Predict the 3D structure of the following.
Amino acid sequence: MSPTRSATSAPSRPPRLERLVRVGETHVGRGVFARRRLEADIVLGEIHGETLNDHPEDSSYVMELPSCKLLEPTPPLRFLNHSCDPNCEIFYWEAETGTVQEDRLWLQTIRPIEPGDELLIDYCWPADAAIPCRCGASGCRGWICDPAELHLVDAQTDS
C-alpha cells in the first residue's frame, strides 16, 4: 500500500482511535469497522508500526513510505482492506526532526461512513504486484493495482 497524497502541515489531533473503530471478520480475513458515524474528511489517526528497510518474508500488511522505507503497521489499522471504491485514504506527512526526515502515515475518511461499515482504502499497488481483487464494489477493476497501471496487468494476463 502506498500513501495517496501528502500534507504540508501536521494533522490536528484526532479522537482516540479505539473509540472510532473496531477490528472484525470479513470475507477476506480481518477488517476495520466504524463504531459510529464518521463524517467526510476526518483524520482518524496515525498509522503506527515498525519501520523496516527490507520487505519481511511473511507480511501482507507492509506499507511503502515516501522515503522508500517500509512500515509494518500495528493493529487496528494494519487490517485495512482494499476496495476499488474506498471510503478512506492514507496520506503522509513529512516531519523533520533535526537532521532526520520522518515519514508519518495518517488515515482520513473521504466520504461519510455509517456505524458498522468497513473502512476501506485503495491499495494502488504497481502492476507487477497486482493480485485478483475480491472487493465486490460495483466498479471493481478485477485487480488490486493502481488504476493508471491496470492496462499493464491486462496486457500480462492476455499473454
Summary: The chain has a mean pLDDT of 87. The domain at 5-123 is CATH 2.170.270.10 (Beta-clip-like). The first strand starts at residue 5 and ends at 7.
